[in-house]
Design a protein that fits this description.
heterotrimer, A mainly alpha (199), B mainly alpha (536), C mainly alpha (94), A: 199 residues, mainly alpha, Four Helix Bundle (Hemerythrin (Met), subunit A), 7 helices, 82% helix, C: 94 residues
């Protein structure tokens, strides 16, 4: 019966509801952040200086561009421009990969300085630093995990567009994938100032 | 939509196998009715384990000192009892079983919005359940933190916390996906003419529940993930030795786990609201008030979590706020009780089995609710916090509320689900024994709690011996009643006499289709033109 | 469930929004680098709020979509704010 009748709005509603759960999932971490930031304002301030603002800014811009490209792919598919659609989805995935590579080097540099959860060096720095970097790794890590999932989702969308399962009059899945990707962007929009810009 | 052939409609969903054989016609079917029953059977299986653990606790408490187990085993027993009962049984209980079975039928749809996702939720549920139950048997011994997994002990203890916590996390996913599915179903698949205010109460309560499932569960998800992070990476979020705050853990945990109580009780109230008008032969009293109070409970219930933490050292402002909000949430609950009683008033009541469960539900729910107000008052709470009083209150609400409503709903919809009627004399016998056992089991806990007996102890002072004996005997009586009920239903499902389409004289859509329903529920999607629960 | 006409957003709109987002990002970086101490964080968060509104309305099509989606998103965000507020009632006054 699901083949007989397609409900695009229902499908979109489902995606939005899922996005709400994701917002609340990160919401739990934002609550934690708010509490510990309040309890250790000075230490958070100092610890934030350890983070690399230029890399953070570049990554923010990369994610914003990727958000724009996936949004444009929906315009492209509605205009029946299959090639452009594929190209836009692919560039979104590539941008996501660049984001992850940057993240990898950023994390790697921290690890080299002995800053990672449970390390002796970090524990010796004091409560505020432990909590700041605990949250930093946990939140950006969870965010990176969402990026990986998002890349997989968009990979499927690429394939579906390619085999014409998604077309100009049946593109709700692509729109849902796009919504998910914007969510990833949305969360980063808040993570960036909260971690990089409070120094 | 009306392309079904005539003979298809005659075949019930139990006969329609989709070409599959044996167990596969169950575990591969995306039919909401079969999935509902899958949940019923799996929940019942875990329930036997949960009940066994509960009985073991009562046997330990039958006399002071070590009776059948020591402190560590007792800690493990109440922990696993709690985790199984809460996460595996009462949270999915009514929504997953009767929600799945009845929601599409009651709103005039052929299935839920995402049938495949629905089946996936069940698989996730089973995966989570197996993780939780495996924590009983794997290496380091069963978890011993209590079902609340309070930090910092939950990441310090050497017992099997990981499978239990991970299991609860996975079960959360199942719950979220079910809620999501129901929300889209209710928004998109109501039959033509079924406006929001013509929808029966049970779907309405599922709607409120689904929102809580969707919006509260992620918070406990992330919290449990943080505990896992603590155990594996030693991060320090909740570790006072690293500056973390254990009270923050309690906040995050209860932000979910209090609304979870409303996940349990709202659909229970919905089921009761179905049963009472049917057996009083009267339109439900104050339909709109019931709807509004349902949404009010779901909404306000989201903001009262702190009343679980009155003695944990919160600020005075927070204590005050949470206490007030707790009292406020009692108002919509009371409105519902008044509605049920007014519905019965001057009705022509037939005291059949489902009605007996519903009436006893109101009785125990009121005791549970009023003792809840005692707990919500700050000063009294300090006296009875963490005593047997809390255990009594909790079981009156969750077991007396959700459990009674579950059995009520089971007896109410049983003829529809299986197309067969159970033996009513045995069902009544089972009910009365169960009810008496229930009161005897949990009643004394209020007295013990006020006298100061702490909960979660395997031992107690000799002063408390008397009421504990009564309580333990009550447990045995209740289990006897439970066994009678289950055997009766089990036998009747296979060989009871055939039930008619509408054995109780109900007015909602489920009573206008054959028992058991055909695969696609309706030959033709019905059009709704009058309010729900209309007796002319 | 009549077939709704889909709104097609132009590439130009997306590009304009993208440029605005990037400018806002650079702005928030600049503001926080100069010493305004306590207000800098507030400003950065405010800018994050503006940016996310853009993403929600244009990229996620809320502006052109059914009203119910806008209502839901608004309610969910307020819910999160209220929960953070109530939690802070404990820590602020301890």
């Amino acid at each position: 019966m699901s083949n007989v009748h397609r409900d695009d709005i229902g499908s979109k509603l489902g995606m939005w509801l899922f996005i709400f759960t994701e917002i609340l999932l990160f919401g739990g971490l934002f609550i934690t952040y708010a509490v510990y930031r309040y309890l250790h304002p000075e230490a958070f301030h100092l610890a934030s200086q350890e983070l690399d603002v230029p890399i953070g800014t570049i990554n923010t811009i990369i994610l914003l561009i990727s958000s724009a490209t996936i949004a444009m792919s929906i315009t492209a598919i509605q205009q029946k421009k299959k090639k452009l659609t594929l190209w836009l989805i692919a560039s979104t995935i590539v941008l996501a990969a660049i984001f992850l590579i940057n993240k990898y080097f950023e994390w790697g540099a921290k690890f080299e300085h002995g800053i990672f959860p449970g390390s002796e060096y970090l524990d010796s720095l004091g409560y505020g630093d432990v909590l700041f970097f605990g949250l930093y790794f946990f939140m950006t890590g969870l965010h990176a995990f969402h990026i990986i999932i998002g890349m997989a989702v968009l990979g499927f969308m690429f394939y579906y567009v390619k085999i014409d399962r998604l077309t100009f009059d049946n593109f709700q899945l692509l729109e849902n994938g796009g919504l998910y990707w914007h969510l990833v962007d949305l969360i980063w929009i808040f993570l960036f100032p909260l971690f990089y810009l409070i120094a | 939509m009306s392309e079904n052939k005539q003979h298809d409609a005659q075949k019930s969903y139990l006969e329609e196998t989709g070409g599959r054989k044996g167990i596969f016609k169950w575990i591969l079917s995306t039919d909401h009715k079969r999935i509902g029953l899958l949940y019923l059977y799996s929940i019942m299986s875990w329930f036997f384990i949960g009940v066994t653990l509960g009985v073991l606790m009562k046997l330990e408490l039958i006399a002071p000192g070590i009776t059948i187990m020591g402190a560590q085993s007792y800690n493990a027993t109440f922990t696993v009892h709690g985790v199984i009962m809460i996460f595996l049984i009462v949270i999915p209980g009514l929504p997953a079983v009767f929600g799945n079975f009845m929601l599409p039928i009651q709103i005039g749809a052929k299935d839920v919005a995402f049938p495949k996702l629905n089946l996936l939720s069940w698989y996730i549920y089973i995966a989570g359940s197996i993780l939780v139950v495996s924590s009983l048997f794997a290496g380091g011994g069963p978890p011993d933190t209590g079902w609340t997994f309070y930090a910092p002990y939950s990441f310090k203890t050497g017992t099997n916390m990981l499978p239990a916590v991970l299991g609860a996390f996975v079960l959360g996913f199942s719950s979220i996906l079910t809620g999501l599915n129901f929300l889209v179903t209710i928004h998109r698949l109501r039959a033509p003419g079924m406006t929001w205010l013509k929808m029966p109460v049970f779907p309405w309560t599922l709607y409120g529940t689904a929102w809580i499932q969707l919006l509260a569960t992620p918070i406990v998800g992330i919290t449990l993930l943080m505990v896992i992070g603590e155990r594996i990476f030693n991060i320090g979020f909740f570790d006072p030795a690293k500056g973390g705050d254990p009270i923050l853990y309690q906040h995050l945990f209860w932000i979910y786990s209090h609304p979870a109580v409303y996940i349990m009780i709202l659909p229970a109230m919905g089921a009761i609201s179905e049963i009472i008008p049917t057996f009083a032969r009267k339109t439900i009293f104050g339909y709109r008030a019931i709807i509004v109070s349902t949404l009010a409970i779901a909404f306000v219930g989201y903001f009262v979590w702190g009343h679980h933490m009155f003695t944990s050292g919160m600020s005075g402002t927070a204590l005050f706020t949470f206490s007030i909000l707790t009292f406020i949430v009692a108002i919509p609950s009371a409105i519902k009780v008044f509605n049920w009683v007014s519905t019965m008033h001057q009705g022509s009541i037939s005291a059949d089995v489902p009605f007996l469960w519903a009436a006893s539900f109101i009785f125990v729910f009121m005791i549970g609710g009023l003792t809840g107000l005692i707990l919500g008052a700050l000063a009294v709470n300090v006296h009875v916090h963490d005593t047997a009083f809390v255990v009594g209150h909790f079981h009156f609400i969750v077991f007396g509320g959700t459990g009674f409503a579950f059995f009520g709903a089971l007896h109410y919809w049983f003829p529809k689900i299986y197309g067969r009627m159970y033996d009513r004399a045995w069902a009544k016998t089972g009910w009365i024994i169960f009810f008496i056992g229930f009161i005897t089991l949990y009643g004394p806990m209020f007295y013990l709690g006020i006298r100061g007996m702490p909960r979660r102890y395997f031992d107690y002072l000799p002063d408390y011996h008397g009421p504990n004996i009564i309580s333990s005997l009550g447990a045995l009586v209740m289990v006897t009643g439970f066994v009678i009920i289950v055997i009766n239903l089990f036998k009747s499902a296979r060989s009871g006499e055939k039930a008619e389409m509408n054995p109780w004289g109900g007015t909602n859509l489920e009573w206008r289709i054959p028992s058991p329903p055909p695969l696609e529920n309706f030959d033709e999607i019905p059009t709704i033109d009058k309010a729900t629960y209309k007796y002319d | 469930m009549a077939e709704e006409k889909h709104h097609i957003t132009s590439y130009k709109t997306y590009l304009l929004v993208l440029v605005a987002l990037i400018i806002f990002t650079l702005l928030s970086v600049t503001i926080t680098q100069i010493e305004l101490s306590r207000w800098a964080t507030v400003a950065a968060l405010l800018i994050a709020g503006i940016k996310s509104t853009f993403v929600l309305l244009v990229f996620m099509h809320l502006k052109f979509d059914l009203r119910i989606f806008r209502v839901m998103v608004g309610l969910i965000i307020s819910l999160l704010v209220v929960v953070i507020f109530i939690t802070m009632l404990d820590f602020l006054f301890r």
